[in-house]
Amino acid sequence: MTYLAIRHLHMTFALLSIGLFATRGLMALCSDRWRGSRVLRIAPHIIDTCLLASAITLLVLAGFNPLDHAWLMAKIIALLLYIYLGRQALRAGLARGVRLPWLIAALACAGYILGVAFTRSATWGLA
């Protein structure tokens, strides 16, 4: 596959991952019954694995070293924060008032990651 094709796959997996997370978060705000859905428990792992594999493939094909590119390092750090915030947001048994701030923070972090990806700047080109 070409770099461009893998990049488009990566973008697709990223949007699927964030969209599915937002859906699961909204469902968690309403009820914990969604946890019984096999698809909603397994699909995120498959999508996120494909997202990670496509990211690593892009790094190798482009010859990028995250330590040499501040925007890549910012994406990696923000990804780790997004994973933590998302995990907190989707914990079972949380009250809506506790879950909502975690969910908003995780989605804001995902938005930051998308902004960094499109601008290739840790500051979105504002600094």
UniProtKB/TrEMBL annotation:
Keyword flag DNA-binding: no
Transmembrane segments: 12-30, 42-64, 70-86, 98-118
Lineage of origin: Bacteria, Pseudomonadati, Pseudomonadota, Betaproteobacteria, Burkholderiales
Protein's recorded name: Regulator SirB
Keyword Transmembrane helix appears in the UniProt entry: yes
UniProt keyword terms in alphabetical order: Membrane, Transmembrane, Transmembrane helix
Gene Ontology cellular-component terms listed: plasma membrane
Organism: Corticimicrobacter populi
Matching InterPro entries: SirB
